[in-house]
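Reviewers of the previous submission asked for a worked example of the structure-prediction workflow described in the proposal, so we include one complete record here. The input consisted solely of the amino acid sequence. No template or homolog information was supplied to the procedure at any stage.
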Amino acid sequence: MATTYSHCSFSCILVVISVFLVAFLHQTTGKPAQHNRTRPTKEKLSHLRMYWHDVVSGRNPTSVTVVNPPARYANGFGAINVIDDPLTLGPDPRSEAVGKAQGVYAMASQEETGLLMTMNFVFTRGKYNGSTIAILGRNAVLDKVREMPVVGGSGLFRFGRGYAEARTIKFDTKTGDATVEYNVYVMHH
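From that input alone, the workflow returned the following structure tokens.
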């Protein structure tokens, strides 16, 4: 019985020493682990400019109200929209598409037109195809320039952080459709 216990202890010690030895050798060689895809590389800043097309009218809207606001709020407080808005390289909705803005915005202010925006910019073409940028923040839509935080990303924007500036290019008061220029500054690995 004592022999089995000492054999197990000796084996356990050998395994622990082997693990530490492999970890030490890996650290001294400076080579990244093959299995660790989240290991940070040198951080860089990317600036992307694109146009967000929010279409609430017509037969194929890209923004749909899923919760209507209570009637007592004239500014729409409480309304919630789900979006699948096109992102293009130019302000014309027919310009080259680079992806979609997918998420939710809600009228979150009782006194002014202030939205809570939570959306992913999902890139489907070009250099960033398959990558995403996550934006979460307040959008005071009547301000000339609005700033919202970039809170994450995936693919080429893994470990992403930064900010997005939004400027309304066009707003149709009859339909509610809007085109907004987004300048996104994101630090990533």
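The beta strands are 44-54, 63-67, 80-88, 97-107, 114-123, 132-140, 146-154, 161-171, 178-188. We consider this example representative of the routine output the project will generate in years two and three.
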